[in-house]
Amino acid sequence: MRAGSHRRPGSRPQASSRIAVVGSCNLDIVTYTDRIPAPGETVIGRRLLQVPGGKGANQAVAAARAGAEVSFIGAVGEDDFGELLATALRREGVITAGLRRVSMPTGTAHITIDSAGENAIVTIAGANAGVSLNERDRAVIASTQALLLQLEIPLEIVVAAAAVAHGAGAHVILTPAPGPSLPAELSRFVDLLIPNESEAVALTGASSGDQAADLLLAEVPAVAVTLGARGCIYRERGGPSLLLPAFPVAAVDTTAAGDTFAGALAVALAEGRSVEAALRWAMAAAALSVQREGAIPSIPYRQEIDSFASAREQARALH
Ligand code: RIB
């Protein structure tokens, strides 16, 4: 069974920002159940979905649906799952000249979602272990406004891509997951780190997301810690310190909410919005994504983000 993508509302406006993503592609095999089983336990599931995902592909689609011209660099296998992922990216207008077909099986993610929409994920890297950078990829990265990175491909490729972008003056944005990990060889090239709260705490040993955000400023110039239904914390060296509440919604599946946030935030910042406006817009995108099932099928289009954000802002102004 495959989840169909919701209808694309309206035509895509002319892209005003250029984003590159170097990262993973996975075929997500998703089971919905009341609760995630404990070790050694079997639970009865309700449904099975197979949908395109992977943190890299999710962020690429999030940025494309948010209105950017997006180039994706990654790898899939020479198999049906690889074809499905390549097609899913191309359908969004993502430039896939940097997507290799390698002789390894396409990466998979085995995801269990509970009745609160929370997930547990096991990924198998497969072809993601075969991502490489050639001269054309380096030129694409060097000419982008922002580079989105995650940690589902070999670390040396993430570091190499970050170094090229940093050297060219592009904004380097890292989601330090899975892991989490933030080696110094990578953090020195990162402009904005986007961990979720548990990742931020694990990276620093702090007792809260707030404290973790402060500590992470020793490693990177700016941090946005996502807090799920509680919103997001932002810290920047010598810049604003923000705590923004989330838009209250009923979550059915939180998979790819962080990727949606990262993609939309990259676009809003590349378009020159203020940090606060960009964060609010990215939170609106994430709020839409958690109300839908699946990874890529859950990611909203720009028009939807605009309508949701302005309706919620108007409602807030009336109260
Ligand atoms: O961030 C969500 C993603 O993590 C899923 O799409 C899955 O593929 C895993 O990589």
Q: Give the total of domains.
A: 1
Query: What is the gyration radius calculated from CA atoms?
Result: 18 Å
The end-to-end distance, rounded to whole angstroms, is 43 Å
Question: Could you say which overall geometry the principal axes of the C-alpha atoms support?
Answer: globular
Unreliable sequence segments: 1-7
Kindly report the name of the CATH homologous superfamily.
Answer: Ribokinase
The overall average pLDDT, rounded, is: 94
CATH top level assignment: Alpha Beta
Q: Remind me, CATH topology? A: UDP-N-acetylmuramoyl-L-alanine:D-glutamate ligase
Which small-molecule species are bound to the chains here?
A: alpha-D-ribofuranose
Total beta strands: 13
Question: What is the name of the CATH architecture?
Answer: 3-Layer(aba) Sandwich
Can you give the helix content as a percent range?
25-40%
Strand residues, percent: 15-25%
In short:
With 319 residues, the protein is an alpha/beta fold. It has one domain: UDP-N-acetylmuramoyl-L-alanine:D-glutamate ligase (3-Layer(aba) Sandwich).
Structure description:
This protein has 319 residues and is an alpha/beta fold. The chain has a single domain (18-24, 55-101, 131-318), classed as UDP-N-acetylmuramoyl-L-alanine:D-glutamate ligase (3-Layer(aba) Sandwich). 34% of the residues lie in helices and 24% in strands. The protein is built from 10 helices and 13 strands. A 9-stranded mixed β-sheet has the order 5-4-1-8-9-10-11-12-13, sandwiched between helices. The protein has a 4-stranded mixed β-sheet with strand order 3-2-6-7. Strand 6 (108-113) and strand 7 (119-124) form a beta hairpin. Helix 1 crosses helix 8 and helix 8 packs antiparallel against helix 9. Alpha-D-ribofuranose is lined by residues 24, 26, 28, 53-55, 58, 109, 121, 123, 152, 255-256, 258-259, 295. Alpha-D-ribofuranose (RIB) is lined by residues 24, 26, 28, 53-55, 58, 109, 121, 123, 152, 255-256, 258-259, 295.
